[in-house]
Amino acid sequence: MEVAEVMSLDDYFLDSRFAAKKPNLRGGWKERCGDNFYSKAPDGTWIQHRNRFHLDERLKTQDTRYARVFVGQRFWYRGKNAESAPSEFAPLFGGRGARVNHDCDLAKQFVAWVQSEYDEGLAGLPNDNPDMDS
Questions:
Q1: Beta bridge partners of 40
Q2: What pTM does this model have?
Q3: Based on C-alpha coordinates, what's the Rg of the chain?
Q4: What is the pLDDT of residues 117-127, one digit of tens each?
Q5: Cβ-Cβ contacts under 8 Å for 50 (sequence gap 6 or more)
Q6: How far apart are CA 68 and CA 80, in angstroms?
Q7: Are residues 107 and 65 in the same domain?
Q8: In degrees to the nearest 10, what's the CA dihedral of 129, 94, 112, 71?
Q9: Same domain, yes or no, for 90 and 35?
Q10: How far is CA 60 from CA 39, 75, 82, in A?
Q11: Structurally, how many domains does the chain consist of?
């Protein structure tokens, strides 16, 4: 994903542009996966609204520790269709929550490779969603 904007978690919840990202637990699998489910109470504490996957206090604490949202307008999601990237890009991959400084030239080469190899958008179903419709 290319990050287009960074905003606070509470602003994300309140911004009408992201209303469709609030989970709809009666909707299809994509609607149930919405990630817009934290807002601030008047006293400054976090409210965790109904959602499918982040269901306990431990996750709320983890999710709100650095209460920022990275908003992307361009993305390449491969899901079950994912293939390994060429080995020269291995230094860029650290997993979820990884904190690393990437070589800018290598990152630019990776973006160019992705753009040349794949179409933007959703190109595969998720690997780990227990709610997938048949």
A1: 46
A2: 0.82
A3: 17
A4: 999 998 988 88
A5: 23, 25, 37
A6: 28
A7: no
A8: 60
A9: no
A10: 11, 26, 29
A11: 2
Tokens 């992307």 -> residue = 72
Report how far apart, in Å, the C-alpha atoms of 117 and of each of 64, 86, 110 are: 35, 12, 11
Q: Examine the pLDDT at 52 and tell me if it is beyond 70.
A: yes
Residues 133 and 16: their CA atoms lie apart, in Å, by 28
- Domain final residue, candidates 45, 72, 99: 72
Element (DSSP H or E) covering residue 28: none
The verdict on 117 and 68 lying in the same domain is no
Structure tokens given for 113: 């490779």
- 38, with CB counted inside 10 A (0-12, 13-18, 19+), is buried
Q: Which residues of 104-122 are buried (b: 16+ CB within 10 A; e: fewer)?
A: eeeeeebeeeeeeeeeeee
Q: 3-class DSSP state for residue 27?
A: coil
List of E strands, 1-134: 2-8, 38-40, 46-48, 68-74, 76-77, 121-122
Whether residue 121 is found in the same domain as residue 93: yes
